[in-house]
Specification:
By secondary structure, the chain is α+β, with helices and mostly antiparallel strands. The protein folds into two domains: 7-67, Signal recognition particle alu RNA binding heterodimer, srp9/1 (2-Layer Sandwich); 82-148, 2,3-Dihydroxybiphenyl 1,2-Dioxygenase, domain 1. It has two helices and ten strands, in the order βαββββββαβββ. Helix 1 packs antiparallel against helix 2 (104-114). It is globular.
Length: 151
């Protein structure tokens, strides 16, 4: 028996932009269905929002997203603050998205893509446990942990 987990992100109107951004960083394809696709009248506010969204790549990257009905403002639901203080990560977010790459060069490529408009929590650099580790909160409010798989 196998099991696959996929991070599912909840947005307030920015799910489509976030999914397209993540596809530009990780490659692959997107599937986006709107509330209108499932029968909501097109003239209702929010009908064009995402009810089911997915980015999937051949490398195994997968993330899902949707827009919470009736919510506006563009930010992800949940906590909004992650920072470093005294060599400790302080956050009010319930979830980080963690990705691991086989090489520092691959991790750097994902980092550079995610860093556009992001707030760096901890720069991508060698650490005690990895050839590269860093954290950032992207422009959509999602905090990513980026690392190199330990050999």
């Amino acid at each position: 028996m196998t099991i696959q987990t996929t991070t599912h992100l909840n947005f307030r109107g920015d799910a489509r932009a976030a999914l397209e951004f993540y596809r530009s960083v990780f490659g692959g394809h997107t599937v986006i269905n709107t509330y209108a696709d499932f029968g909501m009248p097109k003239d209702v506010p929010g009908a064009d929002n995402v009810v089911f969204g997915l980015v999937a790549s051949d490398t195994g990257f997968r993330v899902m997203a949707y827009d919470v009905p009736g919510e506006t403002g563009g930010t992800i639901l949940g906590g909004t603050s992650t920072r470093r203080e005294n060599n400790t990560t302080i956050t009010d977010q319930a979830v980080f998205v963690s990705i691991s790459a086989d090489t520092l060069e691959e991790a750097q490529g994902y980092w550079d893509g995610l860093a556009v408009g992001a707030t760096v929590v901890e720069p991508l650099a060698a650490s005690a446990w990895s050839a590269g580790f860093g954290m950032l909160t992207d422009r959509f409010g999602v905090t990513w942990s980026v690392g190199v798989t330990a050999s």
